[in-house]
Design goal:
Layout (H helix, E strand, L loop, with lengths): L3 H17 L5 H15 L5 H12 L3 H15 L9 H8 L17 H14 L10 H12 L5 H10 L19 H18 L18 E12 L24 E9 L4 E2 L1 E2 L2 E2 L2 E3 L9 H18 L4 E6 L32 E3 L2 E3 L11 H7 L9 H8 L3 H4 L4 H8 L3 E4 L9 H16 L4 H12 L4 H19 L4 H9 L13
Parallel strand pairs: 1-7, 7-10
Antiparallel strand pairs: 1-2, 2-3, 2-6, 4-5, 8-9
Helix pairs in contact: 1-2, 2-3, 3-4, 7-8, 9-17, 10-14, 11-12, 15-16, 15-17, 17-18
Length: 506
């Protein structure tokens, strides 16, 4: 298709370009030079010329033909006198390494990744409004960073940032994790655990004790309910088999137990164990009184097993755990005015003087009287404001629960996990491990459920339990470094080794 005169000029210019640019695009240029020489000088056909160039350069004949086609087809319609070195250079230059993938994508910019993750977290799900779409994300990129990408690229970037299309399912619900009072207590908890860690006894760590101190052994407590109809949630299938499941979870067994870190097992010794099974269908519900009985038994077992150590009991914020005695100073149980249905609380000290919590006629004082006696102007305050103000005083702020009094009264330490932070409790992972077993073996019968619960709990070996405690320490470390609940899982689960390198975002 190329005119003979144009072909000859193109051939001549190749030689001129080679002479002027030795080493530039050597393979491509020399292959085309041999190809065109074979046609113009030796009179070979296209296939023979391409094969001759292949023999000389070592490139495939197909590659030579493809390059020649692109070069000479680009010259069609170009006057011979306009074919100069610049045009030849543009045609023969390689595009290797010049595509957009090597130009540096904004996706690798740390500021972009942090901003993008924040944008998706805020707009992915909006109650009462359409959820964020890939187009919304693309438009945000263009508006915020001035970069135009197609919808498919925006979708790929979302996957690279760790996002996928999610169907609703139960997971960790971030509701009160970052409330001001929760964050404040979480900081206190982290500081307290750091302070006590030097005394803790666990594998690989030798306690650092001051005179008169005993080594500490962490003991985590929790309750969980096992259901007879809870079975496995996934299976392999081709769609031909339809499985009908029970609508109800069926009868249940509640288990309350302790795990200790030193031995890496549930708290037991000499044939005695602290575990409590409770069937709510035939027995009463688990309350503070049953918990106190179980705690007394757990302390007896611990002292028999570790006579030279001190226990550090950790409980969650369940109402049965945080119950205070009626005499405990508690603003939440007080009325605004005297009398009514409010407990008679013990006397307290304020500014070095005794403050009675009852009037001379025997009626309990209300919030207003107690605050006014402490010099607070209560005008314009509602009940919530009055309670909030009273809780700023140390004697009302530091309420001691019945459980805490019982544990500390027997010479051990008692702490409570921050609210909403089940990831700090090692026994929570034991429940997950055990329920995987019970769901695989339950058949809907309570008589079948009873024996497989201990079997499922015993699948947690000492090594597994100790790893659960290590994970809890990793979470404490992440919170100490300032991470929030939304990114702490990603930080803790980042696997670090000499064989794997992670980016900042991953």
């Amino acid at each position: 298709q190329c005119e003979r005169k144009t072909f000859d000029m193109g051939h001549e210019r190749i030689g001129t370009y080679v002479d002027a640019n030795v080493g530039l695009e050597t393979h491509k240029t020399f292959a085309l030079l041999v190809f065109s020489t074979a046609i113009t000088t030796w009179g070979l056909g296209i296939l023979e010329a391409a094969q001759r160039a292949s023999d000389v350069t070592g490139l495939s004949a197909y590659t030579v033909r493809k390059w020649a086609s692109l070069y000479y087809l680009a010259l069609i319609g170009t006057p011979p006198d306009d074919i100069d070195n610049k045009m030849v250079g543009d045609l023969l230059s390689s595009e290797r390494g010049k595509h957009c993938g090597n130009a540096g994508s904004i996706l690798h910019d740390e500021e972009f990744r942090l901003s993008a993750r924040e944008f998706v977290h805020c707009h992915a799900y909006k109650r009462g409004e359409p959820n964020m779409t890939t187009k919304d994300f693309r438009d945000w990129i263009e508006e915020r960073f001035g970069v135009s990408v197609c919808i498919e690229t925006a979708r790929v970037w979302l996957h690279d940032l760790g996002f996928t299309q999610k169907h609703h399912h139960k997971t960790v619900y971030f509701d009160g994790h970052e409330r001001e009072y929760v964050v404040a207590y979480r900081k206190e908890y982290v500081n307290k655990m750091d302070e006590l860690d030097r005394r803790c006894l666990y594998p690989g760590h030798t306690p650092e004790l001051l005179p008169g101190e005993k080594p500490l052994i962490q003991i985590h407590h929790d309750e969980s309910t096992f259901y007879a109809n809870a079975d496995q949630s996934s299976h392999w299938g081709d769609g031909a088999l339809s499985i009908l499941k029970q609508k109800s979870l069926g009868q249940s067994v509640m288990v309350s137990d302790f795990i200790e870190e030193a031995g890496g097992e549930y708290l037991k010794h000499g044939g005695e164990e602290a575990r409590l099974h409770l069937e709510t269908q035939t027995e009463e519900y688990f309350d503070n009184e049953k918990l106190l009985v179980q705690v007394d038994k757990a302390i007896d077992i611990f002292e028999a097993k570790y006579p030279a150590a001190q226990a550090l009991f950790l409980f969650d914020n369940a109402p049965s755990h945080k119950k205070c005695s009626d005499e405990t100073l508690n603003a939440e149980k007080m009325n605004v005015r005297p009398g009514g249905k409010q407990p008679v609380m013990r006397s307290t000290f304020f500014n070095g003087e005794v403050q009675e919590m009852v009037l001379p006629n025997g009626q309990p004082k209300g919030l207003k009287i107690v605050l006014e006696e402490r010099g607070v102007d209560t005008r314009g305050m509602n009940a919530d404001k009055l309670r909030e103000e009273l809780n700023t005083f140390e004697d009302f702020k530091n309420k001691v629960t019945i459980l805490q009094e019982r544990v500390e009264g027997r010479g051990h330490l008692c702490l409570f996990f921050p609210k909403f932070h089940c990831e700090l409790n090692a026994i929570e992972r034991c429940w997950c491990h055990a329920k995987k077993y019970t769901r695989a073996h339950a058949n809907g019968s309570i008589t079948r459920l009873r024996p497989i619960i201990p079997e499922g709990l015993n699948t947690c070996t000492p090594d597994i339990i100790r790893k659960f405690f290590v994970t809890c320490r990793d979470y404490v470390k992440a919170y100490r470094e300032g991470h929030t609940c939304r990114d702490v899982d990603r930080v803790v689960k980042t696997y670090k080794s000499h064989r794997r390198v992670f980016s900042v975002d991953q």
